[in-house]
Every structure is written in C-alpha cells, then in structure tokens.
Specification:
- By secondary structure, the protein is α/β, with parallel strands linked by helices.
- The protein has a domain of 203 residues: Rossmann fold.
- It contains 10 helices and 8 strands.
- Strands 1-2-4-3-5-6-7-8 form an 8-stranded mixed sheet, with helices on both faces.
- Strand 5, helix 3 and strand 6 form a beta-alpha-beta unit.
- Helix 2 packs across helix 3 and helix 4 crosses helix 7.
- The protein is elongated.
- The termini are far apart.
- The protein binds D-malate.
- D-malate binds next to loops.
C-alpha cells in the first residue's frame, strides 16, 4: 500500500528514513536527492510544480532532516544503498533521478552501479571528480572548526559560498531559510558527511557508459561546483544537455527556481514522451508479431485440413 504525504517514515536498512511521496499513483516516478547539509524541503518549489503529472519522492539522506543517522560511518556507497532500499520498499522498479551537489554524487554512483533502475538523470550543481588533496584538507579543517566554533559559525561561513552575489540582495529570505536548515543539522552528521564527501570516488571515468537521457544544470555563479565541471560532464555523457541557470550560484533550484523548473519540466516531459513512444512502438511490434503467429497457425490448420485423406471407397 502507498502512503501519500510529506513526512512519511520508512524503515530502510534498519533506519528511519523520512520522505515525501506525492502525485498520481500511476505517473512516472522522479526521485529528488538534496545537497549537503540540507534536507528534502530544499525541493519544495520543484515538488509543487512536478506533482501534477509525476509521482515525486524526496527523502532526507540519513542524518539529515528527519532521517535517523544510525551508527555506521557515512559514505556515498551507504547513501546509495539507502536510496535503493527506499526504492525497493516503495516498490519502485525504475525512476528518474535528480540530485543536487551531494545528491548528484549519490545519483552518479547509483547509475554507475545500478543502471537498470533509472531511466533519466538530472545532475544539478554537481561534479564527477573526487576531492583534490587540498579539498580533503579543507574538509578536515572544517570538521575541526565545527568542534571549536560550533554550528552557527559553520552555517555563517558556508552561506558565503553557496549563493550568487546578487542573491544576497534579491533572495534574503531564502538565504535565512538555508542557514536555518544547516543549523538544524547535527554536528555529528555534519562531520560524518564531510568525511564521506572527502572520501568519495570519482565517477568521471564511467560517464561514457551512461545510456539514459541526462540534463545537467548549474548556476552561472556556482563557486563550489562551477559551470566548467558541468561542461566536462556534458562532454562525456552521450546526448546530454547542459543548461546554465542565470542569477544563481550553487543552489540554482532555490535561487532561480523559475528557470530551473522550466528546464526541469521540459526535460522530464520529453523523457516521458520518448518512453511513451517506445512503449507504443513495443506494443505495436508485439501486436504485429502476434497477428503473424495467428495467421501462420490458421494457414497451417487450413493446409492440414485440405490434406485430410478422403473416405476410402467401399467396393461392392
Ligand atoms: C553540497 O551542496 O552538497 C556540497 O557543497 C557538496 C560538497 O561540499 O562537495
């Protein structure tokens, strides 16, 4: 049975995972994975737009939002395992997958290891490269600073890099919302996730194997995963499309949700039309095969009947 709503709990890999599940029952499924250190509410504007035509699942990665953290060390592989676990529990065989930044790292790892479970990919403000030694070092320093100076200080420092300069003038409320979201995340989760991000493997070498439609989006002013990183991915993913989102930094879905949603809507509906076309083509092909089988059987029966021996003549 499907539960519909915004803060549903499922036990995934023995852990309480909080998710939203909205939209029509039989609609194509799209799963949204948030960035670090946010939660599923960062997708509210996208969920609002998508639920008319799609079944939309957004969940809190373990430790974030309302999901439990568990006791295992965090890793991208563990997060992917949770994603697949949630899909299994919700009986979702195949879905379109959309991830922002850390969500994109999870999505890229998931499609590399479970390609059959996804029929489209939307990669937002993300990167296929692993952390450089300097980036790893910086994350270790951040972990140390969270211990020394606390979460509020961490949140204030983080938001400086998250947004386009103009957002500090035009998107003040959204920035306050994001700061609150960061401050609601426990220090333990911040540190474990920073460690997991620093240890993640690169996925660039596998991009050529991706065979589903891919949309890449990146804020023009993204300083964390800049447009150059998206261009490199686009070059290596066959048939992929890149959209640079104006007036946005790293959180393009929040800073310019209007443009982000336009591109997202266009992409998912084209994926959907394509898969409807394929389904129609497959249905037609199987109808043709069936009618050929029937015609062959009818001809065989007719031939057999025409060859039946006549009744022997009885000599008088
Ligand atoms: C995110 O938004 O998920 C983070 O910026 C990812 C990262 O720090 O690599």
């Amino acid at each position: 049975m499907r539960y519909i709503g915004t803060d549903i709990e499922a036990i995934v890999n023995k852990l309480n995972i909080s998710y939203t599940d909205e939209g029509p029952d039989d609609a194509p499924v799209i799963i949204l994975i948030h960035g670090f250190p946010f939660n599923k509410s960062m997708w509210n504007k996208q969920i609002e737009m998508l639920i008319e035509h799609y079944r939309v699942i957004a969940y809190d990665v373990r430790g974030h939002g309302n999901s439990a953290a568990g006791t295992e060390d965090f890793s991208i592989e563990l997060f992917v395992n949770d994603l697949l676990g949630l899909m299994d529990i919700l009986k979702i065989e195949k879905a379109m997958l959309c991830g922002l930044s850390m969500g994109g790292y999870i999505a890229l790892n998931a499609i590399e290891n479970f390609p059959k479970r996804f029929n489209a990919l939307i990669l937002c403000d993300t990167n296929c490269a692993a952390d450089t030694p300097e980036a790893k070092e910086k994350r270790m320093m951040t972990i140390e600073n969270i211990g020394k100076y606390g979460i509020e200080n961490y949140a204030s420092e983080s938001i400086k890099n998250l947004f386009a300069p103009e957002s500090f003038v035009t998107n003040k409320e959204k920035i306050v919302g994001i700061k609150e979201m960061i401050m609601e995340t426990k220090a333990q989760t911040l540190c474990s996730t920073l460690h997991a991000l620093s240890m993640r493997k690169e996925t660039c070498n596998k991009l050529r194997e991706i065979s589903v439609p891919v949309l890449l989006m990146v804020g023009k002013e993204d300083q964390i995963t800049p447009p150059a990183a998206a261009r490199l991915m686009q070059k290596n993913i066959r048939g992929s499309v890149l959209q640079i989102i104006e007036h946005a930094g790293h959180l393009s879905n929040i800073e310019n949700s209007y443009e982000f949603n336009n591109q997202l809507e266009k992409f998912v509906s084209s994926v959907n039309q394509q898969s409807e076309k394929h389904m129609k083509r497959d249905r037609l092909a199987s109808e043709v095969i069936n009618s050929r089988k029937v015609a062959k059987r009818e001809k065989l029966e007719k031939d057999l009947n025409s060859k039946e021996p006549e009744h022997p003549k009885i000599e008088e």
